[in-house]
Task: structure prediction
Amino acid sequence: MTAPFPTHKQEDWRYADLEALRPVWEQFAEPVTVTVAPGESLEEVWLPTAADVQLRRVQIALERGASARIFVLNAAPVYGRIELEVSLAEGAEFELFGANIGTGVSTNEIVTNVKHAAPNGRSLQVVRSVLGGKATGSFIGKIEVAHGAQKTDAEQSVKAMLLDRGATANAKPELEIFADDVKCAHGASVGELDPMQLFYAESRGLDPAGARALLLEGFITGLWNSAREPGALSEAARKALRTVVQ
Amino acid sequence: MLTITNLHASVDGRPILNGVSLEVPKGEVHAIMGPNGSGKSTLAYVLAGRPGYEVSEGGVSFDGRDLLALEPHERAAAGLFLGFQYPVEIPGVSSLQFLRESLNGQRRSRGEAELSGGEFIRLAREQAALLGMDAEMLKRPVNVGFSGGEKKRAEMVQMGIMDPKFAILDETDSGLDIDALKAVGEGINRIMRAPDKGVLLITHYQRLLDYVEPHRVHVLQGGRIVRSGGPDLAKELEREGYAEAAA
Result:
């Protein structure tokens, strides 16, 4: 049975492009479930495809001492959505490094719900968005720290770069904390390319599009530092950025 | 080689240059000196094409081309190099990548073959070594975490890599200790002293000119050249101050 079609009234769907989603909903509706056994670790790299609408709905259960590290480049031409629900048992670790890159009238969003269910869990979510044209890029990140999940360390860092006046970035952290000995940090910023950096790069011989692409690469580059094989991510990101700066 | 004629320019609607005329022939080094706020850096930025620096009158010809009609990156490809007074930091982009893409951008627009990764690294290492800079620093993000002196030295390494026809060096001597000053001065002479090249050296002080002796010295004040002379003029300025010398 297919899950009911979402509406904008649901908080985690408020920025979604439901019109684009409707025709393909059935193929994406059911989340994929992954369980990482105690002490095991998982690393995933999710690259964009050429499809107009791209959705990933993934639930990850991290058992005691398990860890997961997800790298994602979200750059659908029309609508891209990465949806992650993660539960952390005692001592589990979760890391997400994601980028939304969009241009035209595209919508790309990363929506997470990280549930610290037991003590000593650690989570880190780093999201960078680069948006041109009239594109929208969003991050909605919920962190739940359950009663008794002491010594949880949860962090979110969200930054967006807007290249044109019509582009929109949304960053929405939600924290629900029911334990008193925890560290939860979140930071968000929205900015534009620095004109002095652009001039410096152009004065050295880069054409304007090349200069913008290089600065944007610098903006997102740190995301892939801890990937086992960052090559494909860097290459795909570079390609997506070239499209955005044209 | 570089001919500036009656150049007027303003920034944010405020006139800064009020009729600068200056000619630097091939093979010569000219120094521009002047008090704070006289328009020295504005002149450098106008020549390099910084957005927001509006030319209202006059012109600049570079190697027979209308310089002001070119975009900043086209000026670079034509052989112009600006050494920044405050070199800009670019987080996340290594100097190696930045300079290789810049140089290859220039080469593409001149119709020359691009340098391969290996060729470029050899060139960059060689230039860094000549300026006494640890080549490992080129792997770090552009100018990030560099001291003032390291940034100026790095500008000279960039200049060595680009090998421009004409360099405008905006207070390249500020923030340098004596050893660095000497290294930078030698770098300028090595890279830029050639029969078909030229240099416009913007400075407050005589001390850089001890290492890089200019053919001509010009005093910029109130947005125009108020006096020109030989190398001795710099010494006179140092001794007597701008107010006295320009009077």
Notes: Chain A has a mean pLDDT of 95.
